[in-house]
Amino acid sequence: MPDATRLTAGDAAPDFTLATDSEGEVNLYELLEDGKKVIVYFYPAAMTPGCTKQACDFTDSLDSLQAAGFTVLGISKDAPSKLAKFRERDGLTITLLSDPELAVHEAYGAYGEKKLYGKLVQGVIRSTFVVGADGKIEVAQYNVKATGHVAKLRKDLGIA
Predict the structure, then answer these.
(1) Is residue 80 part of a domain?
(2) 56 catalytic, yes or no?
(3) Reported pTM
(4) Residue 8 lies in a domain
(5) 118 within a domain of the structure (yes/no)
(6) Which residues form the Thioredoxin domain (predicted)?
(7) Which residue among the candidates 31, 32, 51, 62 is catalytic per the annotation?
(8) H/E segment holding residue 73
(9) Number of domains making up the chain
């Protein structure tokens, strides 16, 4: 039953504190205390073509997302040092977080069984969540495409 751990709208967002690429930490619920909504997205690996496209799309959209009250957090299992190289190489301005033990991935249902080139494998499931200021999931999207996802999310959220 691979979908058993998946979150849906209305569920409480699992809280987390993760290391950033710049030796800091980010706690989800502390961000929510400021009355912001948070877009949390999980991606398989820094500096791969699809993940780079998605991170660059979020970076390109960051000003309008922030103006609409959203903070963007990108989470992967990569070490902070690799995330720092990713940020520098691609000029990323979104917050990148490291979850090497995959605990947060698993709490959000963003790690598990998936199809890769027709085979069932265990891995990161590219997923995006919108967490409201009340700590509840407003949007839960699993198996999103790297290309075009940010534009679709902006449309779904009513952000021009």
Answers:
(1) yes
(2) no
(3) 0.94
(4) no
(5) yes
(6) 7-160
(7) 51
(8) strand 70-76
(9) 1
